[in-house]
Amino acid sequence: MLDGMPEVRGIEVRGTVQGVGFRPFVYRLATVLGVRGSVRNVGGLVAITAAGPGEVLDEFAARLVSEAPPRAAVTGVTVTEVAAAPADAGFTVLPSGDRATVSRDLPPDLATCDECLRELFDPGDRRYRYPFVNCVNCGPRTTIIEALPYDRERTTMRSFAMCAECAAEYNDPADRRFHAEPTACPACGPRLRWTSAAGAAAERDAALPAAVTAIRAGGIVAVKGIGGYQLICAAGDADAVARLRVAKGREGKPLAVMVRDLAAAGALAHVTVTDAALLTSPARPITLLPRRAAGDAALAPEVCAGVPDVGVFLPYSPLHHLLLAELDRPLVVTSGNRADGPIVIDDEAAVRVLGPLADGLLGHDRRILARYDDSVVRTAGPRPLTIRRARGYAPEPLPLPASAPAPVLAVGAQLKHTFALAVGERAVLGPHTGDLEDAGTLDAFERSLALLRRIQDVDPEYVAHDLHPEYLSTKYATTWPAAARLAVQHHHAHVAATAAEHGVAAPFLGVAFDGLGLGDDGTFWGGEVLLATYTGYRRLGRFARAPLPGGAAAVRRPARMALGYLFGAEPLGPHGPDERLAAGLLERLPSREVEVIRRMVERGLNAPLASSAGRLFDAMAALLGLRDTNRYEGDAAIALEAAAAGFAAAEPLAWRLVRRDGLWVYDSAATLREALEALAGGVPSGRIAAAFHETVARVTVALCERAAADAGVATVCLSGGVFQNRRLATAVPAALTRAGFDVYVGERVPMNDGGISYGQAAVAAARLAGR
Fold it and tell me: Which regions of the chain are under pLDDT 70?
């Protein structure tokens, strides 16, 4: 019995509330409290009609937030009085409506839950060893959604008619599959199929054993995953790993390893409490961990390619669990693509692109609609840092510093490309595309954008883009009318992304250390201290400039960058690098290359200037003999960090700040000179690398102290790809905090160029709101 006078209220719940078991939760809560009415998905929210005594409805509304399902994210609840009472005596789940709403939050794909795992390995369960087992708490979401509201007929599961048993579960409010849209079983759901390189075929129960046999025999198998195809082989098989590298065209970049559980991860690497929480979270990201020497026996040397970290992740789909249970060994699981291309999601493309690379394809007949690669994270002290924001995290919305008065598309930069849609007070960051350098990745971007625009039901009125005219993302933006384009400087976008993520009030000091971004003075920036708001910035400090001999060629070849500093470092003091101390580098390089670069620098031919922290790391790596050529983006910097790993502490090298054109400038020439003197004196390169990291940390603090004195601001936001370096990302915030600053780093948003689009969206929203 209900006490008190009955009332009728309409309740709208906004946020990530579709595809996360919210309607079943509402039904059960209403039943427990004796509330009459109904619940339905409408547009991107959940709409409830609730009848009962006022105090009960108050409790009902409060518990909708406090007891929401684990993967739900309630951002707002609106309650209104309703005149008409519900017709039914109980509580019902109604068919979805299609009223458009501003908020359309998509749930990310969810790792297989413990209850589904028990079914997967229970011989008495009807879903025993079924590779597509899922429920309301787990399974594919974003990758199968065609439109909102989230119902089965608006997903790629609509082609699978539920059998009587699945339909009964789907319609039973007491069942955990109540309105779980991907619900299926062996009788009615998707089915595996295997095709070997020789043309042999197998389906259903015979498909998985065929793939297992191929991997066990040293083969490479292309497996259709949740957000795209993956290439899989045994991580301990050196021949298989070497073949995989050749097939993908991936010369030296480390490969990710999937293991059965935390214990297996701990056997390969050192796992902190923070790492363990990341590994076992529903996102199941690849987590970069320091390797254990004892674990190296389980991995072929080619997996990590000399890097002291290993990228480890746990299985997140039933198919992964089955493969690992059968093979009982670590597996290399990497994106199904050729180097620098987008991950393959279409079955025909898999045959065409991956077929020649693999010994067989393990596919299935559930379509992948949205391309989502695996996310990558690492920790720096207690902080989790997102390196790649993709499956499991995207497209969860992120806050904006100001409500965008009109929808904005932010198209990002060139490397580690993402895009963002700014709608109202939030931005939706799209999936990782890869490096936007060719027609394939551009097409992947445009397809992902078209899908997300359709699901969000938004037509952007403005486009935000980088200053660099040659980025494909910028060229895409130039197809829009000039009045609709908002150019955002690269490093302003970097620091705005960190600030917006944490809701930092402006103004703030922004420290952006990365590779290259076009500055507003026509030079390339990358070692910057800015006094920033969300609408603008003023440059207060920078790293010293050096020429980039050959432009992009210097990015690919750190040895060229080292020569740029030797022959053309910005003259800021009397003690620049002495090329006589760099005999090791000069003797190692072809004499013709050295002389050509000398002339380029002296004459200023195809040698643009850059104040880049990333290029300084490259130069130091080459001068120490660690890397002359980058096999992949960031290779030299990673080698420098790896060399420093054996030295816990080190005194800094020489450094100085000078005043130049109203800016505080770090004279890195003094640092390079002392590094060369130390190397010539027999100091190990690793110790010098550690000293260099300590130098950059102290320089950063000094630059911020000078900037704070000039601007009167004590909040610092760090960003840029250089802060992917664990040593730097730990040391710099700690040193700044000791110096009295409030420090923020990108955690949910990549500090590399994967976060540029979010920063562009934040800046564009603030500018438009200011108008």
Answer: 1-5, 87, 98-104
If we measure between CA atoms, which residue out of 404, 534, 493, 496 comes closest to residue 456? 404
Distance (Å, whole) CA 682 – CA 642: 19
User: How many residues belong to the chain?
Assistant: 771
pLDDT for position 663: 97
Cα of first residue to Cα of last residue in the chain, in angstroms, is 56
pTM of the entire predicted model: 0.93
Q: In what order do the strands lie in the sheet with 192-196?
A: 201-203, 192-196, 360-364, 221-224, 229-234, 331-335, 257-258, 309-313, 286-290, 376-380, 383-388
* Sign of CA pseudo-dihedral 710, 714, 715, 716: positive
Element (H, E) at 727: helix 726-738
Residue 152: count of CB within 10 angstroms of its CB: 18
Helix (H) or strand (E) holding 242: helix 238-248
Structure tokens at 149: 């509201």
Task: Assess contact for 703 and 542: CB atoms under 8 A.
Answer: no
Calpha distance 157→135 (Å, rounded): 13
pLDDT confidence of residue 87: 67
- What residues form DSSP beta bridges with 526? 612
Question: For position 99, what pLDDT does the model report?
Answer: 54
β-strand 192-196 against 360-364: which pairing, if any? Answer: antiparallel
Q: What are the backbone angles phi and psi of residue 677, rounded to the nearest 5°?
A: -65, -40
Q: Which of 85, 83, 84, 79 is nearest to 47 (CA)?
A: 79
Find out whether 319 and 181 touch, Cβ atoms under 8 Å. no
**Whole-number Å distance between alpha carbons of 141 and 159:** 16
Quick check: 237 and 300 in contact, CB under 8 A? yes
Q: How far, in Å, CA of 458 to CA of 451, rounded?
A: 11
